[in-house]
Amino acid sequence: MAGQLVEIRDYTIEPQWWDAYRKWLVEDGAPVLKKKLDIIDFWIAGDIEAEVSGSDPRVSPHGQPQVCWIIRWESKAARDAGFGALLQDEEWQACWARHPNPNAYLQMNGRFMETV
After folding, report:
1. I need a labelling partner for 78 at 20 to 30 A (CA). Which of 13, 16, 84, 110 fits?
2. Where are the alpha helices (DSSP H) in 11-114?
3. Domain total in the chain
């Protein structure tokens, strides 16, 4: 559908927390979020190095994101309301309480794009 809004979220996690975060995401976080939001899917970094190019390639001092997930939304207003509701959801709050370190996010990036 032309004009569909998606939110692309990228996270860079502190290296010392990566294994614990990945376990939490795979076993707990992603399954709960997939029940609560219209998520296309989650992706996590493997062992293939990123390819960075262009006329001025710069990688963040934190490195490349290790997690990417994409959520479908009807509008930015629907997104804001949806995230607000998620933060109040008891199942999500319990899941978040099991997070190994909520402060391990070196960088979080959310981008909003429409289909062409």
Report:
1. 13
2. 18-24, 30-36, 76-88, 90-97
3. 1
